[in-house]
Amino acid sequence: MNKTSSQRLPPLKRNWWLKHRFFKLYMLREATVLPLVFFLLCLMAGMVALVQGADSWQGWVGFMGSPVVLALNLLALAASLYHAATFFVLFPRVMPLRIAGRSLPDNMIVAGQWAGVVVVALLFFWLLGRA
Amino acid sequence: MNKTISVKRYVPDNAAESYWQAFELPVDDSTSLLDALNHIKEQLDSTLSYRWSCRMAICGSCGVMVNGIPKLGCKTFLRDYDGEIRIEPLAHFPVQRDLVVDMEIFLEHLAAVKPYLIDDDPVKPFDPQAPETYRQSPAQLARYKQFANCINCGLCYSACPQFGLNPEFRGPAAIALAHRYNQDSRDHGKKQRMAELNRHEGVWSCTFVGFCSKVCPKHVDPAAAVNQGKVEAAKHTLIALFKGDEMNGEGKAHE
Amino acid sequence: MSKQAMSKPGSPQAASHQQAFDEPLWWGLFSAGGVCFAVLLPAVILFIGVLLPLGLLPADALSYERATALLFSVPGFLFVGAVVCLPLFHAAHRLRHGLFDISVGRDGFNKKLMYGAAALLSMLALGLVVAGMLS
């Protein structure tokens, strides 16, 4: 308890992450939530429109089609896929799965998660895509 | 063939500020960075200070920044570098002189997580007639073996921006070692360590940047250990919530 | 906790040397939201954010009547929980840590701001579904 505390350096400057490609990719991963938040707010606006009535809903669909909104949501789509690519590989490292004492190979867990993405997309196609 | 390496010098006796010094030296395919530093010290400038011992990536003392990335000097070969080679002391640690850093803070973090077997039973005198040994199956060994390969070189601390942003963060190697003992079937110290890990400066400062695991010369994967530690800390919290009596941590009774 | 070996009385460490019993909750919500963001959101954004406004879905796929029927239901309630609420907490967690990474604001305040906003927006989103179900 009376041990002298060791020397401490001042904290890193806020631009530390610009020094390496690895840190830039990390910040890009963290920044995927920015377009996500934009899309979620759009989605909630759509829910409000749905509560208000048919005209509001049509108005919202039109709003979603305006070039800037569409571009930002395309960015959100790309962000969700980049997030998925970075997130899936972390899963086996955070929760290594063991079945009958053997650990499941990492690439199997990653592949399983991508299969989940495809299944959800197919589900949406089944629900909304058929004429 | 000759190559030039630039070394960041800091000699507090002579100059208050650090400065760069370039050395040109002969290299071949087998020249490690440590060989190069030894050549500089013996042939070119005997005032250069750096740490080294084993030359074979087991003592963990020759860590330096090579072009901004933490590396062991003995495991880094100049044949892999075509352009400039900039050598700096390990990042995020106070520099004492040239490439020698003060690692005291790392040792403090290491000691804080009790990286040794903790047994509930008091030590029994050794009886040669009936020696008692720990038993451990290969499956039990496999649970922690990877995390036991740490050589305490500190490269992961230089790679960790969260440690750079907040030196109170216990950091990759200390938490990996805590996890190593928590996963050990012979150990009973998990509750004591969880009190240390389940703090803001414990596992919760980590944002899984993952660079620590990239630079680890022994493939320990400290980032995985820290994040498995988050799962353990979450379990620890649930248990504490249901029991209600351990909210102040287990550390008290043992200190 | 003041007996911990590293902390000196009165030092900033002593004050922060306490168990972080709230962090497992935020991290749990962050992780669950991360899974939803990765597995569900690509399809949701593709269909609702891109194909719908471009008119590439069948005309009645998300007409007012169909959208109302789909959303204002128990599955719709669960859909909003997984596609809006959990990803909001995921985003809140990353934004909070991101602000710390670029040294903006104090973590204690950012934490309240981010998780508070996520909680408010989540309640609003779920409330909209309930309102739609009742009307």
Automatic annotation (TrEMBL), chain A:
Signal peptide: none
Keywords carried by this UniProt record: Cell membrane, Membrane, Transmembrane, Transmembrane helix
Parts of the chain that traverse the membrane: 69-91, 111-129
Keyword Cell wall biogenesis/degradation listed: no
Superkingdom of the source species: Bacteria
Pfam family, one: Fumarate_red_C
Protein name: Fumarate reductase subunit C
Record organism: Halomonas colorata
From TrEMBL, chain B:
Domain 4Fe-4S ferredoxin-type: 140-170
Xref: Pfam families: Fer2_3 (PF13085), Fer4_8 (PF13183)
Cross-referenced PROSITE patterns: 2FE2S_FER_1, 2FE2S_FER_2, 4FE4S_FER_1, 4FE4S_FER_2
Enzyme class, broadest EC rank: oxidoreductase
Listed cofactors: [2Fe-2S] cluster; [4Fe-4S] cluster; [3Fe-4S] cluster
Cofactor note: Binds 1 [2Fe-2S] cluster. Binds 1 [4Fe-4S] cluster.
Alphabetical keyword list: 2Fe-2S, 3Fe-4S, 4Fe-4S, Iron, Iron-sulfur, Metal-binding, Oxidoreductase, Tricarboxylic acid cycle
Assigned EC number: 1.3.5.1
Pathway: Carbohydrate metabolism; tricarboxylic acid cycle; fumarate from succinate (bacterial route): step 1/1
InterPro entries: 2Fe-2S_ferredoxin-like_sf (IPR036010), 2Fe-2S_ferredoxin-type (IPR001041), 2Fe2S_fd_BS (IPR006058), 4Fe4S_Fe-S-bd (IPR017896), 4Fe4S_Fe_S_CS (IPR017900), Beta-grasp_dom_sf (IPR012675), Helical_ferredxn (IPR009051), SDH/FRD_Iron-Sulfur (IPR050573)
Catalytic activity: a menaquinone + succinate = a menaquinol + fumarate
Annotated ranges, domain 2Fe-2S ferredoxin-type: 5-91
Family: Belongs to the succinate dehydrogenase/fumarate reductase iron-sulfur protein family.
Identification of the protein by name: Fumarate reductase iron-sulfur subunit
Species annotation: Halomonas colorata
From TrEMBL, chain C:
Spans through the membrane: 25-52, 72-92, 113-134
Alphabetical UniProt keywords: Cell membrane, Membrane, Transmembrane, Transmembrane helix
InterPro entries found in the cross-reference section: Fumarate_red_D (IPR003418), SQR/QFR_C/D (IPR034804)
Pfam families, per database record: Fumarate_red_D
Keyword Membrane among UniProt keywords: yes
Domain of life: Bacteria
Record's keyword annotation contains Membrane: yes
Name this polypeptide is given: Fumarate reductase subunit D
Species lineage: Bacteria, Pseudomonadati, Pseudomonadota, Gammaproteobacteria, Oceanospirillales
